[in-house]
Every structure is written in structure tokens, then in C-alpha cells.
Amino acid sequence: MERPSLEFSLPDTHQEGKLYVVDSLNNLNKLNVCPAESQRSLDEEENTGGTEENMAGSNTRNQCLLFTTFILTLAVTLALVSFVIFLIFQTRNEVDQISSRLLSEKKNIEQLKKLNNIILKHLNQSRIME
Fold it and tell me: CB of 42 within 8 A of CB of 30?
């Protein structure tokens, strides 16, 4: 007669162990996913123990995760756009500086050509006179 009683007690212990593991995983998930305000509402839902309320808790958790993901994506996108705009302005400034240098160098080259022509004319005239 002791065998049937042992057989009944073992599956009950196994079921309790499963429930304990699932409860522990749920608690760990709550700590990692949702902020403190959401934690309070999830704890209240656990205390009531209804299946509809558990589904509402799951929806709240999913909304919290979705909202957090959305905010992080928005922040990263804003940072990338700001960086691209900064690079555009930086590139425009450098291009403007290079083009102004090229214009000034072009003017210098033109002046050097004029001086070279004047020197050549003077040398040609001095050769003619000799």
C-alpha cells in the first residue's frame, strides 16, 4: 500500500518544481525587461491570480518592451542624423577653403606669368641693344 502513496507524492513534487522554475523565470524576466512602475502593476496582477489579468500583464510587458525599443531606436536614429549633418557641414567648409585656396593660387600663377613675360621682354630688349 505504500507504493501507491509514493507514486502520488512524486508527481506532485515534480509539478511543484516546474511551477517554482516558471515563477523564478517570470520574476527574472520582470526585473530585466520593465522599469519599476511596470513592476508594481505586474506584481498586483500576480496577486490577483486571474488568467485574464495574466494576459493583461503580458500585454503590458509587451507594450513596455515595444515602447522601450521604439525610444532606443529613435535616439539612435537622431544621433546618426545629427552626425551626418555635422559631416555635411564639415565637408562643405573644407571644400570652401580648398576652392578659395585654388582661386588665390590661380591669381598668383597669373601674376607670375605676367612677371615672367615682363622679364622676357626686358631680356629680349637688352639683347637687341647689345
Answer: yes
DSSP state of 35: -
pTM exceeding 0.70: no
Q: What is the pLDDT of residue 2?
A: 46
pLDDT at 5 over 50: no
Give the number of other Cβ atoms within 10 Å of residue 61's Cβ.
19
Q: In the predicted model, what is the mean pLDDT of the chain?
A: 78
CA 15 vs. chain centroid, Å, equals: 43
SS3 34: coil
How is 36-98 classified by DSSP, letter by letter?
HHHHHHHHHHHHH--HHHHHHHHHHHHHHHHHHHHHHHHHHHHHHHHHHHHHHHHHHHHHHHH
Q: How many beta carbons lie within 10 A of that of residue 24, not counting itself?
A: 10
Residue whose C-alpha is closest to residue 107's, from 115, 97, 95:
115
CB-count burial class (<10 Å; 0-12, 13-18, 19+) for 30: middle
